């Protein structure tokens, strides 16, 4: 950041300027505008950040705020007490979260600010001790503010994420069949308005309204974007809408003015694109129907996407002094043989019966997840290792003794292998899943149809 | 952090030690254990942090990780390239989010680490330039890592918050009537088991099973805690459960052994507490029934808790170059007179009819919220100021012309005042709500039954 120190040689020659705090405040004041530009430069170099700041008014509104923040933070005599200082920094963090400013960009920009100010301090006439104390002030004041802002940022943005998700599920759950049909109709209405216009209704040169601002386009942009966030079908729909408005409609308008045959090729291209959008619209709604249900439709066990919520919470309870919990990782032995030999429908039936035995054996307050194809993960709450093995064995033995009746009248017997792992103080639940997985592997290695424990493996 | 520098005088006397990087790495290596303790000291002084670390195994697992991180970060020759460095720091941030370690405590602890290391550098024999460059290295390495960790932390924890909310809504939506009844039954089963045991079934000194580990207690602890997070009724239920297990049951057991009359006083106390829990349980389920619906039951307009999601998103779309949107804040004129004069049911009818007119006038893709008692907030997407005023006037005039028919055969006429504000580049949507609110106030001041705009106020 040499340009800053060169432009504004830091530190006046008075005696007061030798005071580290005054030197720091002086440098900040002299370079405030350059520092603010430096901060926003960080944003402009980042794709997400520059999209955010592309609106000139945003920069206009934010820059004076940053300038004031910096000068107050590094002032010789900060006004106000600790309580109001903390409240102020937290309020800024909350605003950043509300305006969805990426926190890491704020941190990175602030880092550049610190480096630039530090370089100016080094270039100042402060002696070794004075420099050290000015650098110390600089770092601790800014880091202190960043901690407070960060705390508020995380709290407001996780709250925001909760509300976003609640609204998304509300919007999807609302009346998605009606919604699908009304949007299909809205799409057809738009395409009809184009065709009528081309056939001379509304005057020979009648307007060709863009699809982007039609009711369908507005829905895609403002509602579907929220309901189907990140869906590839939605991205294709968006690309098609843009293509229609930016390429196809102008070409159609041009061909109409010129008259002649190319128009029909263009309208049939339009037809194809509208059909594709209609197809993708159906896919969009179908994709959430399965995803949003909390349970696996085949086995009625919990969807594994809830794992982080449930195991994260159980780990926190166990750490805070609750009883430990035990995970069982259960896999159906030789499932591939069943599926390949007797067919998928028999495979499905086996999975459903295994799930039933598990659900009948555990307590209502335990959690059973479909973890993979033929794998289930069972979280036995407030259950130590010995009790966990007992329940695992009860499940395994029930299945061993059970004859599954198939629709064709034949019988089938299945066995399962189980790996058990009990909470061992590790705060990351993925560690415990790994242990249960390793124990399951050991049970398979030892000949299947048995329960192995993570503890036993560790000892062997 | 003098004790650290005193215990381990920093900087060896060799020539290599005069290199700022080696001095820094040397000080970090010599003081690693003390630094790690200092970091965890921050956590132990914080209520949330100390609860997290109270489990001895957590500290045992985390400390070596922190030690390794610090030494690698400040080493003279960091191994690996930038890509793997970034991946590593991000992985740590993700783990912190997964284990729900409060991010601000990590930042605060790291700040203390930096200060301690800086103090040791100041105490080293490095000259002014060497000191400045060692301090620069220390700060930039740690800040760099914190930025990367922070980015991953925010991303994983907001994702986690989304899944938590999805699971909460799933659990509530699941079968809450069945759930309420089964939990009521579970509570009764427990209390019956105590009474039977006191009446001599299961042997004279039959066990008195704690309610905390009964099916009902497990449900309260592991499911209700998630479904009804932060509810005061749930806190009272929890307090009652603890009171029963820690105070009442031991007293009952004691009284039973001693024999005699005090037992009946204690069992009637138990009865009262169980009744209270039963009552609170009903309240718990009732409280979510209203809260969780996305719409206001009276007017069918959107629940205002979705405001942050919707306006945050529309602001982001407008900033990223979309068309501006306009907010209308609408208030029913003299609503108090209607409510007080004609009764609440007429007031409700008026609100419902006003909502119907609004919903009939706006497009399907606009958003209408019940903002307060007789206030509605309308977000008109992709609508500039002129079009916004037009829609506001259409709503106002429809209502002015409309006669509301009351069930008693009488007629009623209502008017509304509207404040309009159009997106002006401010990234915080609360600013726009304020503007619409001020415009509404101006419309009321100017005599009601009119639309005022934020722009006009700014000019006047």
TrEMBL record, chains A, B:
One GO term describing the cellular component: plasma membrane
Lineage: superkingdom: Bacteria
UniProt record, GO biological process: cell adhesion involved in single-species biofilm formation; negative regulation of bacterial-type flagellum-dependent cell motility
Transmembrane regions: none
Pfam families: DosC_2nd, GGDEF, Protoglobin
Catalysis: reaction(s): 2 GTP = 3',3'-c-di-GMP + 2 diphosphate
Limits of the GGDEF domain: 323-456
EC number, UniProt record: 2.7.7.65
EC category: transferase
InterPro entries documented for this protein: Diguanylate_Cyclase (IPR050469), DosC_2nd (IPR048442), GGDEF_dom (IPR000160), Globin-like_sf (IPR009050), Globin-sensor_dom (IPR044398), Globin/Proto (IPR012292), Nucleotide_cyclase (IPR029787), Rev_trsase/Diguanyl_cyclase (IPR043128)
MF annotations from Gene Ontology: diguanylate cyclase activity; heme binding; oxygen binding
Xref: PANTHER family: DIGUANYLATE CYCLASE DGCM-RELATED (PTHR45138:SF9), REGULATORY COMPONENTS OF SENSORY TRANSDUCTION SYSTEM (PTHR45138)
Designated name of the protein: Diguanylate cyclase DosC
Lineage: Bacteria, Pseudomonadati, Pseudomonadota, Alphaproteobacteria, Hyphomicrobiales
